[in-house]
Design the sequence.
């Protein structure tokens, strides 16, 4: 019976970078997810509510009414007729896209109602009102 000669294998030089690559891929995925999490718009002081439903989708349109009453569509200032024209154009391309309305807490209620009335005339059904969390 012959005995097999056992010789330990020598490790080749170098650094094992597999764990490093794994960590980098996880960081990359987290970065991609967090970079797409916000909707472009104007910073406003949102009113507080106890519960909020998120309607953030890739085709979500954000309408913002700031504290001076100026209306913005995805961070671009528009008038009510321009807003109606752009939303009708978008509805022709994508019939059922969600719209979120962000109104500053100090803006007149009538200005937000004008925007909501416009959305009803255009017959958009997926409308959300953005609020902040109660503290």
Sequence:
């Amino acid at each position: 019976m012959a005995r097999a000669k056992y010789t330990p294998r020598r490790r080749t030089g170098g650094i094992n970078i597999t764990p490093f690559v794994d960590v980098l891929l996880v960081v990359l995925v987290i970065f991609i997810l967090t970079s797409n999490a916000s909707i472009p718009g104007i910073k406003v002081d949102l009113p507080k509510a106890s519960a909020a439903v998120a309607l953030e989708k890739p085709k979500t349109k954000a309408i913002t009414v700031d504290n001076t009453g100026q209306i913005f569509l995805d961070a671009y200032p528009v008038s009510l007729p321009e807003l109606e024209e752009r939303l009708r154009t978008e509805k022709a391309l994508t019939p059922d896209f969600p719209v979120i309305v962000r109104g500053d807490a100090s803006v007149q209620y009538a200005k937000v109602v004008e925007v909501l009335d416009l959305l009803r005339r255009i017959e958009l059904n997926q409308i959300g009102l953005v609020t902040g969390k109660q503290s």
